[in-house]
Design a protein that fits this description.
By secondary structure, this protein is α/β, with parallel strands linked by helices. Strands 1-2-3-4-5-6-7-8 form an 8-stranded parallel β-barrel, surrounded by 7 helices. Helix 1 packs parallel to helix 2, helix 1 runs parallel beside helix 11 and helix 5 packs across helix 7. Helix content is 43%, strand content 15%. It contains 11 helices and 8 strands. The longest helix is centred in the last third of the chain and has 19 residues. Bound molecules: phosphoenolpyruvate.
Length: 252
């Protein structure tokens, strides 16, 4: 079901104490807010997931993981499985973040496997993708995005999409302070929806939430979220500050 979503990707930030504090602050701030159906999600690092899940119990705040391994279990030192995430109460996982792709060599093929595993365990997937600056300068942004989505997701049956959220994150806008203009975001989101519609039909395409990510801040969230095909944001830096995050959550 297409919903507005604001998800905070905390990356490798916030120790146990900071996690407790920020979860508490966000929980409190959304309690007294009319969210108008907007889902609010935070994605702390693995070791703090249990704390965040506990801290968000009986509130509207949801907790996601930032990654998971594609195998169900086994000799994969240092890795975390879908089953483990489920067992601590996590229901959503972010896959394909550009930092995972760039620093940990995650390919479309690997991400297709991760998506399959996550969905098989009934985890919701926030699937990230986006072009690099060189792609955009060469006018190839749509081709890059299309191939990322097709390679990692288009083997799925239509009904899998009820557990998928897409996050378009142009790499050149992540953590750089540079944001895609609302028009650039809208153009790409419309293209993504059309790409989905061409293969799966307009009902699926219209039912999927497509988030924008890349230097979203309180100052620009309203304009970006105001675009018809933008259903919210995946927020990095600004999600580490409760006031900024709340301002973004309420920007619709
Ligand atoms: C992100 O890492 O998903 C992200 C969008 O980061 P930032 O908001 O800091 O650009």
């Amino acid at each position: 079901m297409r919903k507005n979503i604001v998800a905070g990707n905390w990356k490798m930030n916030n120790d146990l104490k900071a996690t407790k504090k920020l979860v508490k602050q966000i929980r409190k701030s959304i309690k007294k807010t009319d969210l108008k159906g907007t889902r609010v999600i935070v994605a702390p690092t693995f070791v703090n997931l249990i704390t965040a899940v506990k801290g968000s119990k009986k509130s509207k705040l949801e907790v996601a993981a930032q990654n998971m391994h594609q195998a169900n279990n086994g000799a994969f030192t240092g890795e975390v499985s879908a089953e483990m995430l489920k067992s601590v109460g996590v229901k959503t996982v972010i896959l394909g973040h550009s930092e995972r792709r760039a620093y940990f060599g995650e390919t479309d093929a690997l991400l297709a496997e991760k998506v399959n595993t996550a969905l098989a365990h009934k985890l919701e997937v926030i699937f990230c993708f986006g072009e690099e600056l060189a792609d955009r300068k060469a006018g190839k942004e749509e081709a890059v995005v299309e191939s990322q989505i097709k390679n990692a997701l288009f083997h799925l049956e239509a009904n899998a999409y009820k557990n998928i959220v897409l996050a378009y994150e142009p790499v050149w806008a992540i953590g750089t302070g540079e944001t895609a203009s609302p028009e650039q975001a809208q153009d790409m989101h419309a293209f993504i929806r059309k790409t989905l519609a061409d293969t799966y039909g307009s009902e699926i395409a219209d039912s999927i939430s497509i988030l924008y990510g890349g230097s979203v801040k309180p100052a620009n969230a309203k304009e970006i979220f105001g675009k018809p095909d933008v259903d919210g944001g995946l927020i990095g830096g600004a999600s580490l500050n409760a006031n900024d995050f709340h301002a973004i959550v309420t920007a619709f």
